[in-house]
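Revision sheet: structure tokens.
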Amino acid sequence: MTDASENRVPADAPGEEIVTDDAASVEVPEGAQPDIVPGEDPPLVEGAESEREIEVEVGEKLVEVKNLTIRFGGLTALDDVSFDIKRGEILGLIGPNGAGKTTCFNAMTGVYKPTSGDVLLEGQSVKGRKQHQITRLGFARTFQNIRLFGEMTALENVVVGLDARHRTSVPGALLRLPRHVREEKSSVDRAMALLDFVGIAQHAQKRSRDLSYGSQRRLEIARALGTDPKLLCLDEPAAGFNPAEKEDLMALIRSIRDEGYTVLLIEHDMKLVMGVTDRIVVLEFGKKIADDLPAAIRNDPRVIAAYLGVPEDDVA
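Predicted:
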């Protein structure tokens, strides 16, 4: 498969919903649909953990954010922020608008270069790595503004994500050598399994621009999962959802964690955050003000003050 990264809008491009039309297409032969039985676990997810070869045990530190600082000129967007993410947990990253949540995501995934500090995944620094290298290391993310290949089908969009793990060379893909053929067939099966897992397998052959907003959100999650991430970063995945869709999203996030993935979640909907996360980190004006269990965060006077604007003198 041709490397589709050449055709993508850079991760820091502002507000693009649809990316490009000329990314490499995926040849899906008739009858190539995988054997997926409704109600059964998709085959990809069953084998995903062994492929990722995660070294740390469940409950141990998978990601460490150490004294992370990012400045844009005279503006300090993140100020000496430190926290860790344990393997197998769903960690919420919350805070008022402008608190630095997405900036933190961007620093972790290579969009922004930290002014100081570091981010470690299984002890390996992301410093100096390009975005595609960080993806191969094990980070994957979705975006506030949906970014899909509009003229590609849902299935093809997920196959693009799976391409991050392919080992076929460009000449091998052009000549359609056996390894490329095997990887291409495997990608179709795995992509269909992921579409089934997120609940949109019935839309596999639809162009992504023709999908409903909710289905596009789920497609982004499927594409991110296609990279076999060690950490899945979800940036406001419930934005624009109605209450019923939010409940379904909560169930999906739990299912993702149950399949062995670790999740970092940015979200403004407090009911969703409190209902799905194991632990929550709170930012305000680029500083970390709390790191605790949801029940403790709910009653933390510093968090209440950050959201409601209570004067500091009134905070116990």
